[in-house]
Design a protein that fits this description.
Chain lengths: 307, 272
């Protein structure tokens, strides 16, 4: 369980995180979404108290991270920035961290096997590929059997097989009752993994909702209807909160503000034939872009149209 | 990596203790190459330079004029290698902490030990312990190897000579304090190049710069600089301007402790 209250962080005169208030609950995967530079990594550093907040507060399992006696048992973290001495082997890296709180050597061996680094465990971490580095980061995060797992962009550098593995891992960890908090700038990946979403842009929370609701909201209950009597149907559907748009001259309508069942019943009641009745789901990526459009820090300049 | 992973629970959950963090720091220290190379260099310098210097000096001794022969410092020649060994120890002392910042390891260290200070104490304890365990014997070997060479010309000094055991073992202790001072400076600067520059600047650049001061000021201040204060422990010649051996080493220890204390305050205050 992670609880943030008005969490704020300034670097110089730049506000990286701006009054974040949210709760990350155990037992589910919570996605932490935002464009690059929106403050995700900073928030995670504040949770681990690597950085001190300018204002506000954040606790893990009811306490400041620093006040836990066995910190690695509370939070297992994978940070986006590499946090490994390049001259040390993966094995010794894990061993040194394990020893700080009496975690046995056998645990180090288990995790090296779990993430599939057995062959290279004695090699210097500086020679690792991005994907191997991520796996070592995952092993580090799980070292202390943590009740909260916090991963910053964990699928970065993983191959498709690794991404699938990661999805199973995250869901499995949540099923065991752990708090799982995963950041990403990729909506599509989060839609497949996360049960709940916290979306931030420019350091502020812009959505805190279940993935299901986010999808529903995003699609705005758009329904595509095809009927040979489209004009008559459009008249019947018209109402204060309903917009009907003719898509083409071939009887295709886009209806916003009514559920498919309402449209179908209305048509049946009036003896209008329907050839198609399809709820449209806006792509999540579109929804995410729509939501964060104003909050993207570094926007590509639209190419000017030369007349 | 394709099967659904399961993570076994830990049978027992331990707490962070200073002793455990020190063990962790020992693992860190022994598991990187720079440690082995630096300590190897320090030991080779301490003993090798002593043997070389004693051989050369012994060879030249018959040709020295009587005044030079009267001033001959058999102890000093056999401890000449400490001058070079301190560079290796100092650089390693800086690296022990700054490499964590340059590689990002510090984030993992501070996540495992979020109270932070045990990491600094652990590093200092382990590095001081290993330096003492290697460099006190190295100083003793350097002394006996050197004296064995000098004895062929009958110009050696006995280990039982007053002050000699203190000077030889003190040479090893001096290197321990050099390492701690460098570690403290490295932890303040958090950057390898900057840390080494600061260490070398304070130890080796400031002393000759003192010569631009009026002689009376220079003579009054110079013995209190870290290098001169620390080196007093290695001398049995009390005629000079230097502090007495233990006062000098004590002052050098204070310099090192001050650097580590400043580093500790900054470690708690700064973002990682």
């Amino acid at each position: 369980m992670i609880e943030a209250q008005g969490l704020t962080k300034d670097y110089g005169d730049k506000r990286a995180v701006d009054g974040l208030t949210f709760t990350v609950k155990p037992g589910i995967v919570t996605g932490f979404l935002g464009p690059n530079g929106s403050g995700k990594s900073t928030t995670m550093r504040l949770i681990l108290e690597l950085d001190a907040p300018t204002a506000g507060d954040v606790t893990v399992n009811g306490k400041h991270y620093r006040d836990h006696t066995a910190p690695l048992h509370e939070v297992g973290a994978l940070l986006e920035a590499r946090s490994v001495h390049t001259g040390r082997s993966a094995y010794n890296h894990l061993l040194a961290l394990a020893q700080t709180q009496g975690i046995p050597r056998s645990r180090v061996d288990d995790l090296i096997d779990l993430v599939g680094l057995h062959e290279v465990a004695k090699k210097r971490a500086g020679q690792f590929s991005l994907g191997m580095g991520q796996r070592l980061g995952i092993a580090t995060a799980l070292l202390g059997d943590p009740s909260t797992v916090m991963l910053d962009e964990p699928v970065n550098g993983l191959d498709p097989e690794g991404i699938l593995w990661m999805r199973h891992l995250l869901k499995g960890l949540a099923k065991e009752g752990r708090t799982v908090f995963v950041s990403s700038h990729l909506m599509s990946e989060m839609a497949l993994t996360a049960d709940h979403l916290i979306v931030i842009g420019r350091g502020k929370v812009i959505a805190d909702t279940s993935t299901e609701d986010f999808v529903a909201q995003a699609s705005g209950s758009l329904v595509r209807v095809r009927s040979p009597q489209a004009a008559r149907l459009a008249e019947l559907l018209a109402g204060p909160d309903v917009t009907v748009t003719a898509v083409d001259g071939d009887g295709l309508l886009d209806v916003k503000g009514l559920k498919p069942a309402q449209i179908g019943d209305l048509a049946a009641g009036n003896g209008i034939a329907l050839h198609e009745l399809t709820p449209q789901q806006a792509s999540l990526e579109d929804a995410f872009m729509e939501l964060t459009r104003e909050d993207v820090e570094f926007k590509a300049i639209e190419p000017a149209v030369v007349a | 990596m394709s099967t659904v992973p399961t993570i076994a629970p830990l049978p027992h959950v331990g707490k962070v203790t200073q002793a455990r963090v020190a063990l962790s720091e020992w693992t860190k220290l022994r598991s990187v190459r720079s440690t082995r190379w630096s300590f190897f260099a320090a030991v080779v310098f301490a003993i090798g330079i002593a043997a070389l210097a004693c051989t050369v000096v012994a060879h030249h001794y018959p040709q020295m004029d009587p005044r030079e022969q009267a001033n001959f410092d058999a102890l000093g020649v056999s401890l000449a290698g400490v001058q070079l060994a301190q560079l290796a120890i100092g650089v390693l002392g800086v690296l022990v902490i700054t490499a964590e910042y340059s590689t990002g390891m510090i984030r993992a260290s501070m996540t495992a030990v979020p109270k932070r200070l045990p990491v600094l104490w652990g590093k200092a304890m382990v590095f001081a312990g290993v330096t003492a365990a290697l460099m006190i014997p190295a100083a003793l070997i350097a002394f006996f190897v050197g004296q064995a060479i000098l004895s062929r010309h009958g110009i050696d000094i006995a280990f039982t000579h007053p002050g000699v055991p203190r000077a030889v073992i003190g040479a090893g202790l001096y290197l321990v304090v050099v390492g701690l001072f460098a570690l403290g400076l490295g932890a303040i600067v958090r950057n390898t190049a900057g840390g080494i520059a600061l260490f070398a600047g304070i130890m080796f650049v400031i002393p000759p710069l003192m010569n631009v001061l009026p002689a009376s000021w220079n003579n009054a201040a110079s013995p209190y600089l870290p290098l001169a204060a620390g080196e007093a422990i290695m001398s049995i010649d009390s005629s000079g301007n230097n502090l007495s051996p233990w006062v000098g080493l004590g002052l050098f220890v204070l310099y090192a402790l001050a650097a580590i204390a400043v580093a500790a305050v900054l470690l708690l205050r700064r973002d990682t």
